[in-house]
Amino acid sequence: MVWVSTQGRSAEPHYGAVWEADGHTKPGNYRSADLAWRDDWLYAKRRKFVRIVRDQDLWRVELPDGKFTGTMNRTRAKDAAMSWGLRILNGGFVWPG
After folding, report:
1. What is the per-residue DSSP string for 53-80?
2. What whole-number distance in Å separates Cα of residue 2 and Cα of residue 27?
3. Range of 20's domain?
4. 35 or 12, which is more confident?
5. What is the pLDDT of residues 28-71, one digit of tens each?
6. Pick the residue with more confidence: 88 or 32?
7. Nearest 5 degrees, angle CA 13-CA 18-CA 23?
8. Within a domain: residue 94?
9. Domain count, the chain
10. Residue 17 has pLDDT above 60, yes or no
11. Are 47 and 66 members of one domain?
12. Nearest-angstrom CA–CA distance, 5 and 45
């Protein structure tokens, strides 16, 4: 267990992420709280990373390599985008080629 400073608030325990002195996680230790949604874009530290796009009545996830997933409802698309984003950022996915 690591005690995490929450910048001005009291420290909270967090299992897994390792924080640097500047309050950011080290590369490879991202968690869902480190990602944020703005409109249809998922951001990783102020950088557009993954987005969801409307496809008729359903949604698809557009990955950083330009490929799209199958169609799904908006809630599932946001969940899938978050999962893909964490997997890519934490080094659990290797791009083919």
Report:
1. EEETTEEEEEPTTS-B---B-HHHHHHH
2. 17
3. 1-30
4. 35
5. 678 888 899 999 999 887 888 889 999 999 999 998 778 899 99
6. 32
7. 85
8. no
9. 2
10. no
11. yes
12. 18
Secondary-structure percent of the chain, ordered helix, strand, coil, rounded to 5: 20, 35, 45
Length of the chain: 97
Co-location of 20 and 48 in the same domain: no
Q: Is residue 19 a contact partner of residue 5, using CB atoms and an 8 Å limit?
A: yes
Could you tell me if 79 and 43 lie in one domain? yes
**Cα 44 to Cα 50: distance, rounded to the nearest angstrom:** 9
Q: Does pTM surpass 0.90?
A: no
Q: How far apart are CA 61 and CA 52, in angstroms?
A: 4
Q: What is the dihedral of CA 89, 94, 87, 61, to 10 degrees?
A: 100
